[in-house]
Design a protein that fits this description.
Layout: H1 8-38, H2 43-59, H3 65-83
Helix pairs in contact: 1-2, 2-3
Length: about 80
């Protein structure tokens, strides 16, 4: 449990942080699920979904731009290997 603040503004800050963390967790979890699902399903359509989700996560500040690029690069590598 997080440390409880005494100051009103700090109490609000704790609430805001918890809300943001919950929102970010949803985005991260969905991205991870899509990446795992990529290996099983239709590769081209799944790759597009994963790339889109990664870019949206970057746009909203949930993950770093380089992490999204790394995810997409690994995806492209798997896609190329699947085509061979």
């Amino acid at each position: 449990m997080p440390h409880m603040a005494n100051i009103k503004a700090n109490k609000k800050s704790v609430r805001q942080t918890a809300a943001r963390a919950a929102r970010n967790k949803i985005v991260r979890t969905r991205l991870k699920t899509l990446v795992k699902g990529f290996t099983a399903g239709a590769p081209a359509a799944a790759a597009s979904l994963v790339a889109s989700a990664a870019d949206k996560a970057v746009k909203s500040g949930v993950i770093h731009r380089n992490k999204a690029n790394r995810i997409k690069a690994r995806l492209a590598k798997k896609l190329a290997a699947a085509k061979k």
